[in-house]
TrEMBL record:
<dbReference type="InterPro" id="IPR050072">
    <property type="entry name" value="Peptidase_M20A"/>
</dbReference>
<dbReference type="Pfam" id="PF07687">
    <property type="entry name" value="M20_dimer"/>
</dbReference>
<dbReference type="InterPro" id="IPR011650">
    <property type="entry name" value="Peptidase_M20_dimer"/>
</dbReference>
<dbReference type="Pfam" id="PF01546">
    <property type="entry name" value="Peptidase_M20"/>
</dbReference>
<comment type="similarity">
    <text>Belongs to the peptidase M20A family.</text>
</comment>
<protein>
    <submittedName>
        <fullName>Acetylornithine deacetylase/succinyl-diaminopimelate desuccinylase family protein</fullName>
    </submittedName>
</protein>
<feature type="domain" description="Peptidase M20 dimerisation">
    <location>
        <begin position="196"/>
        <end position="313"/>
    </location>
</feature>
<dbReference type="InterPro" id="IPR002933">
    <property type="entry name" value="Peptidase_M20"/>
</dbReference>
<keyword id="KW-0170">Cobalt</keyword>
<keyword id="KW-0479">Metal-binding</keyword>
<keyword id="KW-0862">Zinc</keyword>
<dbReference type="InterPro" id="IPR010182">
    <property type="entry name" value="ArgE/DapE"/>
</dbReference>
<dbReference type="InterPro" id="IPR036264">
    <property type="entry name" value="Bact_exopeptidase_dim_dom"/>
</dbReference>
<keyword id="KW-0378">Hydrolase</keyword>
Length: 424
């Protein structure tokens, strides 16, 4: 039966390509959340025509949701002939902005040399298309399957996933008894099983000063200079400390096996977005967003205290230094056990399709597995999909068509193994 599925997937090559191209040409840019509804409706029409029960679910009152930019998710379910487990393929439909440096139309879906180019090809509309083709081929070859198969296209993963998987998980859509196994087709390379991700703490630090005329800065107190002292202390003390912390988690790439801190943005003084001449002001506020990625060996309280202790030291040692710090997001590291059913099923699929042993990795950044584990309390979840991780968010992003074909075969194999565990 699996050989028949593989042949069907091969025969659907042009369909897989056209599906990926169609998805890429819907510019679901986040922020702000463009074209979510048209993309969800496109997926819904396709899956409904193939017998799935389809729901469009808006993440109401989640960050960024509005009538102009509704957080529209699509969830499709196909029941088998007999009761059994449910396997769910979850892909995010949002993409980051195109940015500069492209030699292809970012939303053109151009095909060249066995690749499809465009924003979201790799991260992760190619994976979404591969999972759809895998499931369609599977049910065509084996309409008599047990359990149920679900496919979802969810929003906002690139900005935390709160209007997408987090919202759906809060409604019970990623919990037992509805769902048993989840595969997220993120681009971790076709022969890798991604068991989880590092932790993340996002926070905003604000330093304060006093307004004065820019020609007489000695009458005021510059909040930007105070923030400069924060950056200096990070360079001198915090960054060397983080570089000394290493993990036994199989994180890729190599540089992510240590703790990291990214200064996401700094804003002080004039209002953002104003392109006229500035006024002569000493800024009384400066804000910094930090993105701290931490390891399974670290405790979140310690992660936060390292930054707070640095700020407290400046408050004591630097004249007129005052600050505030605000949590934005925190997610603990997660790592699915290698013996979990979904890990074994996908691993066997890689061995069968590619005749090689899979690699087991941890993602340097978080993805929607965090919400499935934290809110849904479902831990039989991994990321597996086509695409080269290093191409995500880059100019001239692409996905290799052959990789999508092979990954689709692995997903179909895993589907059968999880729905009929005694048949293989």
């Amino acid at each position: 039966m699996l050989e028949a599925v593989n042949r069907r997937i091969d025969s659907k090559r042009s369909d897989l390509v056209s599906l990926t191209v169609d998805l890429v040409r819907i510019p679901t840019i986040n922020p702000p959340g463009d074209a979510y509804t048209p993309c969800a409706e496109y997926i819904a029409r396709r899956l409904k025509a193939r017998g799935f029960h389809v729901q469009l679910m808006r993440g109401e009152e989640t960050p960024g949701d509005s009538d102009r930019y509704p957080r529209t998710n699509v969830v499709a379910r196909l029941e088998g002939k007999r009761p059994g487990p449910t396997i769910h393929f979850n892909s995010h439909i949002d993409v980051v902005e195109a940015g500069s440096g492209w030699t292809f139309d970012p939303f053109g879906g151009e095909i060249r040399d066995g690749r499809i180019y465009g924003r979201g090809t790799c991260d992760m509309k190619g994976g979404l298309a591969a999972s759809i083709i895998a499931v369609e081929a599977y049910i065509e070859a084996n309409s008599n399957f047990d359990g149920a198969i679900e496919i979802s296209g969810t929003v906002d993963e690139e900005s935390g996933g709160f209007g997408g998987v987090a919202y759906l998980a809060s409604k019970g859509l990623f919990s037992k008894p509805r769902v048993d196994h989840v595969i997220i087709p993120e681009p971790l390379n076709k022969d890798r099983v991604c068991l989880g991700h590092r932790g993340v703490w996002w926070a905003e630090i604000e330093t304060f000063g006093t307004h004065a005329h820019g020609s007489m800065p000695f009458l005021g107190d510059c909040a930007v200079r105070h923030m400069g002292s924060v950056v200096t202390k990070m360079e001198e003390d915090l960054y060397p400390l983080l570089a000394s912390k290493r993990t036994d988690m199989p994180v890729v790439p190599e540089g992510a096996k240590q703790s990291t801190l990214n200064i996401n943005s700094v804003h002080g003084g004039e209002n953002e977005g104003f392109d006229g001449l500035p006024s002569a002001n000493v800024p009384d506020s400066c804000r910094m967003i930090i993105d701290r990625r931490f390891l399974i060996e670290e405790d979140i309280a310690t992660v936060k205290s390292e930054v707070i202790d640095l700020l407290e030291g400046l408050r004591k040692d630097r004249e007129n230094f005052s600050y505030a710090i605000r949590d934005i997001m925190e997610v603990l590291p997660t790592m699915t056990d290698r013996d979990a059913p979904v890990v074994q099923a996908v691993s066997d699929g890689i061995r069968s399709v590619m005749e090689r042993e899979p690699d087991y990795v941890i993602s340097p950044g978080t993805y929607d597995q965090k919400h499935i584990a934290r809110i849904g309390h479902l831990h039989d979840c991994i990321a597996y999909g086509p695409g080269i991780l290093d191409l995500a968010h880059m100019a001239d992003e692409f996905i290799v068509i052959d990789d999508m074909i092979e990954s689709a075969k692995v997903m179909a194999h895993a589907t059968h193994a999880l729905l009929h565990p005694l048949s293989l």
